[in-house]
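User: I'm new to structure prediction. If I give you an amino acid sequence, what do you actually give back? Let's try with this one:
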Amino acid sequence: MFAEDRVLVGVINRKRDLETVLGEKWYRIPQNQMKRGVNAEYIAFFLSKAFGERNGGIHYFADRKGVELLYRRDLLPQEPNHPRANEAYYKIQLGTIYPKVPPVLNTSRRTLSFIYTTWDRFVNASKISDLYSKEDYFVDRIYHALRNVGVSAERSWSAEYRNAPARLRILCENGPLTASTQPEDGSMYLDNHHHEDAILASILAEIAKQGGPVMINVPIDLL
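Assistant: Good question. You get back a string of structure tokens that encode the predicted 3D arrangement of the chain. For your 223 residues, that looks like this:
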């Protein structure tokens, strides 16, 4: 375990999926939610509202042992009629499952999907905000603000690529728009000294110049 090791936090929405993690030691992620692959040494698990008093916390983690790409229908043959049965998923093989003590709690009740963080942040964290670098937290908030107004974006975190800039990529009718926390040629600069509302307005204006966003259905339920 090294301080710079990457930890990917994923959400578990169903009790049967937690049973799979704990008993069979594997976890699934839709490929279209991780198009650049699963770049992490450890996987941590955030439990959603299905888990009663454990709702809203990261209670377990494991080291990643391997990754396969399979169709959902092959991962879960008992659910052949699921709407995403024919979509590709990463099957992540896990090592020993460890409890996170103390758990990492979502004290601010923020909307979560995936989070990349580093081992040193994760092992010392007691609340979700402890997992973020300043850049990653800023980009995550802009990402969710865009989702709230119906604009789909792809994220890359500084933690995911070991201190690379955190970025957003939005597909527009006239080509992709990229935005970065470091000044880069051809990208909008996400200056975290500016108010988030102003940044969001600037991104939406640039999207409009690019012909508007390409409409892609991003399901809230990632199962």
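You can read the tokens as a compact description of the fold. Here is one thing that stands out. Residues 134-209 form one domain.
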